[in-house]
Structures are given as C-alpha cells and as structure tokens.
Amino acid sequence: MLRVSRLCAAHGAVQAVREVDIEVVRGTLVALIGSNGAGKTTTLNTIAGLHKPSGGTVTVDGRDITGWACHKVVRSGVALVAEGRRVAPPLTVLENLELSAYSGRATKAQQAEQLTEVFDLFPRLADRRGQLAASMSGGEQQMLAFGRALMTRPKVLLLDEPSMGLAPSIVDVLFQTIETLHTAGATILLVEQNAELALAVSQRVYVMQRGRIVTDGTADAVRGRAEVMSALFG
Ligand SMILES: Nc1ncnc2c1ncn2[C@@H]1O[C@H](COP(=O)(O)OP(=O)(O)O)[C@@H](O)[C@H]1O
Ligand SMILES: [Mg+2]
C-alpha cells in the first residue's frame, strides 16, 4: 500500500503541493484528478523521488521512502510513467525495456518473465522490438513508457496523464491495458485530466485544486459534487 501523508512540495515560491493525503490500498486503482496546474504532476514526481518534498511522508507497505532518490524509489517498488512519456529515443524498444529492468528489483529470471508479460500486454512492442524508440508514434512511445515501468516489477504504478496528446483509439487501448493490469491485481495511482475517463476506471478518486485535495471518495460519490465541478472547471 502507498500512503502519502501531509505531503508538501514547492517550485521556488510556488507551493505546488499542500499537505496532501492519499492512500492507495493494494490492488486498487485510484485516480487523482484536477485542472491544469493543480499540482498533480508535482505530487507524483515527489512520490517518485524526482522532486524533493518540503514536508510530509511517503510510505510503501509501511516503509518510509520520503525524499529518497528516484533510483532507490524504483527499487522500493514504485514506478512512474512520467508525463510526456520519457523513453530513450536512440535505443531500440528492447534496449529501452532491458535498461529499465536493470534499474528495478527483478532478478534475471524475473526480467525475462517480465519481458514476456510486457510483450503479451503490448503485442505492438513485440513486433517492433528492434526498432528505435525515436521512430515510433506517440501512442507506441506511451506503450513503451508503460512497458519500461512494468519491467521494474512495481508494487505501485504511478501513471501521469497517459492519454495526453494521443488519438482516442490509442487512448482506448491504453485504458484497456490499465484495466487489464488492475484486474490482474496491480496497484495504480492514475493522474488524469480527463475526469470522465478517470472516474470510469477507478475505485477511488481524489480531486486536487491549487495544491490541495478538496474532496475524495468513490467515483460515484465524487461525481457531480460541487467541489469537483469547481476544481475541474472553476
Ligand atoms: N518546474 C517548475 N518550475 C516552476 N513552477 C512549476 C514547475 N512545475 C510546475 N510548476 C507550478 O506548480 C504548480 C503545479 O504544477 P503541476 O504539478 O505541473 O500541475 P498539474 O500536473 O496538475 O498540471 C503550477 O502552478 C505550476 O505552474
Ligand atoms: Mg501534470
């Protein structure tokens, strides 16, 4: 289980994350929604060790990982699919996946197993394993970014706006994959600006506005609440 408690983070004078509490129970899919600039990416990046918190704690299965460097966070079992899908463009699909596995906590045998799983999940990556990441479409690069995260055998998967800038047909494929992972038992914290998409797949939703969680609950309970409307459109 991932537990974020009173987390704070700043960019210079901008308090981007203010005393944020989030719980992602093992096996659940939790969404974090809010308008552009609400602080969603800063929250995920701070959990993942790309950004230093200015307060609060992050624990994974009770282990305090607050402020750890990102490579140590990955080894603790938390993998981030970053906003804007970071892949290594000069490397092939296979090299991207192998490199990522190396930074994770999997043994050699587990890495081979994991590669099979990723190729099962994204047959398109299997077909293009020898192709340079740079030559792939945005949707394929997002699949590769997912694949890279999965190669580390995460306990918790953090997804930052997987639908961003992609055609609806690719978004459908990615969200089907997210649901497949969830059904298979993955623990996922999904950041998404498309609230409808997020509400449709998640069990629990946190709504963020100006750095704070303004409301949370089940997708059905949160839907239509005044705070949600104001956070998303206000
Ligand atoms: N690198 C940065 N430098 C300065 N301010 C930033 C930086 N990144 C984000 N911010 C500010 O922090 C706030 C939260 O941004 P962000 O976490 O990216 O929000 P979201 O992902 O919800 O759109 C915004 O006010 C944004 O302008
Ligand atoms: Mg963002």
Number of helices: 10
Strand order across the largest sheet: 6-7-8-3-9-10
Helicity level, as a percent range?
A: 25-40%
Give the number of domains: 2
CATH superfamily of the largest domain: P-loop containing nucleotide triphosphate hydrolases
List its traits.
234 residues; alpha/beta; Rossmann fold; 2 domains; six-stranded mixed beta sheet; four-stranded antiparallel beta sheet; 10 strands; 40% helix; binds adenosine-5'-diphosphate; binds magnesium ion
Verbal overview:
There is one protein chain. By secondary structure, the chain is an alpha/beta fold. The chain has two domains: 124 residues, 3-Layer(aba) Sandwich (Rossmann fold), CATH 3.40.50; 77 residues, no CATH class. The chain contains ten helices and ten strands. The chain has a six-stranded mixed sheet with strand order 6-7-8-3-9-10, sandwiched between helices. Strands 2-1-4-5 form a four-stranded antiparallel sheet, covered by helices on one side. Magnesium ion binds next to α1. InterPro entries: AAA+_ATPase, ABC_transporter-like_ATP-bd, ABC_transporter-like_CS, BCAA_Transport_ATP-bd_LivF, P-loop_NTPase.
Structure at a glance:
This protein has helices spanning 40-47, 70-75, 93-103, 108-121, 123-127, 138-151, 168-183, 195-201, 219-222, 226-233, and strands spanning 2-11, 14-24, 29-33, 55-60, 63-64, 78-81, 156-160, 187-192, 204-209, 212-218. The chain is an alpha/beta fold.
Topology:
Elements: E1 2-11, E2 14-24, E3 29-33, H1 40-47, E4 55-60, E5 63-64, H2 70-75, E6 78-81, H3 93-103, H4 108-121, H5 123-127, H6 138-151, E7 156-160, H7 168-183, E8 187-192, H8 195-201, E9 204-209, E10 212-218, H9 219-222, H10 226-233
Parallel strand pairs: 3-8, 3-9, 6-7, 7-8
Antiparallel strand pairs: 1-2, 1-4, 4-5, 9-10
The chain binds adenosine-5'-diphosphate and magnesium ion (MG).
GO biological process, one term: L-amino acid transport
Protein name: ABC transporter ATP-binding protein
Domain ABC transporter: 2-232
